[in-house]
Amino acid sequence: MERAMQFHETLQNLMEWLDSSEERLDDMGALGADTEAIKQQINELKVFRDVDPRTVDVEALNQLAHDMMERASPESAQAIRAPLDEVNRRWNSYRERS
Predict the structure, then answer these.
(1) How far, CA to CA in Å, does 44 sit from each of 7, 57, 68, 88?
(2) Mean pLDDT of successive 10-residue segments in the chain (98 residues)?
């Protein structure tokens, strides 16, 4: 039960962080036309590159999910796998964009 609560809490936190971060990336738009605009965008991108702590969270979530799925029924394992796959897909997309 404790592992399931930890999984759901970590999953929810990552989903919220991804929502916010993806929105900020979308709002950045095209590369600026002048030097100052480009410098500003570079500074904004530095924030996105600071994802190492989130990498640890994603890896921990994957390990926790793997451990839970080993002991779960097929239906429960699928209920774990579906949101995990979504987080991993979004995480990989985020890493490629930032």
Answers:
(1) 30, 22, 37, 24
(2) 90 93 75 71 66 82 93 93 96 85
